[in-house]
Amino acid sequence: MNAKASGLYRQYFRRGPDYRFGDDVDFVDIKQQFGFRSIEVGAWVTREERQLAANLLFDAFADLAFMLALPPAAIGLRESLALAFGRGGQRGVQAHYAPGSATLALAKNAGAGALAHEWWHALDNHLAGKAFEEPGRANAFASRRWLHDEPLTDHPLNHCLHRLFAAVLLSGDLNQPSQLVKDGLALDRDNGTRYFSQPEELTARAFEGWLQGREDIKNQYLVSGTKQGELAQSGAFPRGEQQQRYATAASEYFAELAAILAP
Fold it and tell me: Model pTM greater than 0.85?
């Protein structure tokens, strides 16, 4: 292992179970263990980088499944989610989810810390076609459909999903936009964008903030940057009472999902 690759591996702090028992894994192991539809690795990824990335990604997805109390195979969303490493991303973007192809793409040396955020986008997109009374477009997001008052199918899991979205997008009394929405609108005004206030981005940041706030697992490759830095200080993530409401709603949703998926 050369110094550059070794340094890349060491810079991501992790505290959690040793799922691999010190062994190396490969991308075939990731596909089989986590139920991905397909995995593609870029031609410019060296063998060494490929090995390091496989270990990091395996641990990150295993930590995600552990924190959500889901079977590992559920991470691939019923084999509908594809993973691309070192190819298929967007220029200048460290990680990206493409709803049209249901592909989670990570840049070779810059995707770390955004994995949880992009996985939520994948779940949000997946639910858009599963949770509503009417079918949606392939590139739709459930959070946006919910905000547009499209009716969810009457099911206990969707009742939890309703409360989850409300915890992110509505105030505690459910009568006005949440503080997170207001802060997102302010960020968009300051930056001249329409990004931070979009429902799919608000729910993704709430999800990653919740995961990083957990004490049972710490994994900087999975999620980072929600507690410190300029974006965190600007109100881009839930805080205080809203953070607690979201944590309760997220815990309830994933507990219900885990119960449904249990053998």
Answer: yes
